[in-house]
Every structure is written in C-alpha cells, then in structure tokens.
Design goal:
single chain; seven-stranded antiparallel sheet
Length: about 200
C-alpha cells in the first residue's frame, strides 16, 4: 500500500482557537469541513495530545480561521511549531480579534472565520472529532483558501538538501527533521504529532 496517496486528498488549512479560564490558545489543523447545511454544522478533528483539544473538550466553544494563500510561514510556525502547554501563543500576537463568543480569530493570512459550539464528540483513538453548530461567521478577504498542496508548494520553505554523514528523516507534514539510522515505528512528530509513516528518508551516507 502506498500511504502517500492520502496526500492527494484535498485538505484546507486552519487555525483553530479556544479560550478557557482566561487563557487563549490555538493550533494548526487540516481537518475541518461542513457536514450539514440545515442545520449549519461543521466537524473538526484534533489530536488529543494538544492543549487546544482539551480546551475545546472542556468549554465546547471554538473558532476556525481559514488560512489563505497570502499566509506567511510564520503563521504556521507560531501556531504549529510550539505548544500552548509551554507558552502563551497570543502574548504580543497582534493579528487577532475576538468574535462574539469571546474567542480570538486570526486577522492576517486568513480569509474568513467561523465560530461554533460543540454538540457531539466522537472518539477516534488518537484524535477526537467534534461536531459543532455554527454560531457566527464572516469573510475577511477574497484571497483563495490555501490547500494542503499549496502550502507545500508555495508557503513551506524548501528543505536544505546539503549532504551529511547522518541519516535524515523529514516529516512530510511540517518539515521536522529526525536524525538517526532508523526511525522508530512508534515515533510521533513532536511538532505536528503525525506518525512515523508520514516521514521520508531524504539522505544518508
């Protein structure tokens, strides 16, 4: 089986944000979609190891900011390459406003936002799928939404392919580099939480 076929599916990219006990947080996801029109409902799927997951599970409220093609890689680094368990991602982050539900949405590098209230949870093992009613939404720009493929082709920096004496494994999702002769089968990317199957061997002696 060629698992790379999964990357041919059409994904969008989003910043999902939440607020709990006065603390704001957010992370990058590629699993958000409308599931019904009447009532207007969406689904999002989030890794259980992230702080944003627990905040949404506890509060039942979140915003989705839809990333656009003019997004800078810094947006992905800021919300995807660090954990809200160790830092306050909204400390001195100015490109955000609060919607009526009190949760931040992103204002730069996105074209719209959606506010939602959770009505159902589905346990998917490593992840939870949240089904939610849309409570508010707005369009911020007419710039097209960034797909997963667009991110890899136009936003994510190209890897440095300099020769090295070490075997290098690169996460195909976020670009994290693991150095070692073999990549453990149970390895999980510390940045985006994707499994070893999403790593590629790019060079070795």
């Amino acid at each position: 089986m060629n698992n790379n076929a999964m990357f041919k599916l059409s994904y969008g990219l989003f910043v999902i944000t939440a607020k709990e006990n006065g603390f704001d947080n957010g992370c990058i996801i590629n699993t958000a979609q409308q599931v019904t029109d009447k009532p207007n409902r969406i689904s999002v799927t989030i890794n259980k190891s992230g702080k944003t997951h627990d905040m949404i599970k506890n509060t039942g409220v979140f915003n989705i900011s839809i990333i656009s093609e003019d997004a800078d890689f810094e947006l992905f680094k800021h919300f995807g390459f660090q954990s809200g368990a160790n830092c306050n991602k909204f400390n001195n982050f100015e490109a955000a406003n609060r919607s009526e539900n009190g949760v931040f949405y992103i204002t730069a590098g996105v074209n719209s936002y959606i506010s939602a209230n959770v009505i159902q949870e589905i346990d998917l093992g490593t992840h939870t799928m949240f089904i939610a009613d849309v409570t508010d939404s707005d369009i911020l720009s007419d710039i097209p939404s960034a797909t997963y493929a667009y991110y890899h082709s136009h936003i994510k920096p190209k890897p440095n392919e300099k020769k090295t004496s070490k075997t290098v494994w690169r996460c195909k999702v976020c670009g994290y580099i693991y150095e070692g002769k073999e990549l453990p089968e149970d390895f999980t990317c510390p940045i985006c939480k994707h499994p070893a199957s999403d790593f590629e061997k790019i060079e070795s002696d």
